[in-house]
Each structure stands twice: as structure tokens, then as C-alpha cells.
């Protein structure tokens, strides 16, 4: 059996984005405190990196105006959104608005904002930043995390340019 070679095609940034949009991801809010006020932004590029030491990562556009305000204190939280928090995701993705309007949150021991009713959260110290094209790759050392009883929701997902939800197993088996 022979395999035919796949011929690479030229692509533009929109095609690249659309292609990678076929990879489902969770949605997070990266949050911190700046001048005594909560700050945060929507981020879908979050992942675990290492168990020893416990590290996580996310990427953020270099031109972000929110991330530098979070980074200056050297700590941040990552709030993984639950299935019914698509409105919060959209709210934190907008520029020039009060992102925290109507959002319930409590401070982590570090002071970082932890959004109520999320799927889970991690509280981190800034470990490293790396330039990567038009983004920064940010690594954080986890210093605290949500307790197991916190994990009672389904995740909010992003797939092919839209918010998605997991279907319950009984819906699939009918």
C-alpha cells in the first residue's frame, strides 16, 4: 500500500486560525490585582506543564494591555470556566469595559481574584516568560488550587469559533 504525499498549500493567518479552531479547548480567565483593583482577560491557551515543580502555562498577545498589569506583581490566578459561564468569557474578552461588572469573586490567599462557580482554579507565582511570535508564553508555579469539592461543573469549551458544551452521556446513549 502506498501513501501519497500531502502537498503543503500556502495559507493566510485566517486559514491558520480556522484550521487550529478544530482543536477544542477550555476557556479561562487569567486574573490578578493591580493598584488594588481586579484585572483579568479571557484566555483559551492554558495547559499543565510539570508536576515537579507544579507548573502551568498560558499564552497572551504581546500587545495585551491587561497582562502587563497582572505581571507587575509576579502572580496570577487561572480560573477555568464552567459550562454556563460563556457570558463571563465574552465580557472579559472585550477591551475598554468594566470586565468585573456583575462578576462574583473572592480573593485567593495571594489576593488574586477567584471567580465564583468556576470549574476549577490555580493560583500561581510567575515562573518565566518566553517570546513566541506575536505572543508571550507565560509559565506559573502553582502555589494553591481549588479543592476537590470545587470540581462539580462541566467545562465551557471553545470549538470552531463558538462556545460548546459537553453532552451528558445519557443524551448520547438515548
Describe this structure as you would to a colleague:
- The protein has helices spanning 13-20, 67-71, 86-93, 169-173; strands spanning 25-26, 28-34, 37-43, 46-50, 55-61, 75-80, 105-107, 113-115, 120-132, 135-145, 156-159, 162-165.
- The protein is mainly beta.
- The chain has one domain (24-161): Pnp Oxidase, Chain A.
- A hairpin with a 4-residue loop joins strand 4 and strand 5.
- The longest helix is centred in the first third of the chain and has 8 residues, at 13-20.
- The N and C termini lie far apart (40 Å).
Q: Which architecture does the CATH hierarchy give at level 2?
A: Roll
Q: What structural class is derived from the secondary structure elements?
A: mainly beta
Termini separation (Å)? 40 Å
* Uncertain stretches: none
Helix content: 10-25%
β-strand percent reads: 35-45%
Summary of the model, kept short:
With 174 residues, the chain is mostly beta strands. The chain has 4 helices and 12 strands.
Keywords, please?
41% strand, 174 residues, 4 helices, seven-stranded antiparallel beta sheet, 15% helix, mainly beta, Pnp Oxidase, Chain A
Outline the secondary-structure elements.
Layout: H1 13-20, E1 25-26, E2 28-34, E3 37-43, E4 46-50, E5 55-61, H2 67-71, E6 75-80, H3 86-93, E7 105-107, E8 113-115, E9 120-132, E10 135-145, E11 156-159, E12 162-165, H4 169-173
Antiparallel strand pairs: 1-11, 2-3, 2-6, 4-5, 5-10, 6-9, 7-8, 9-10, 11-12
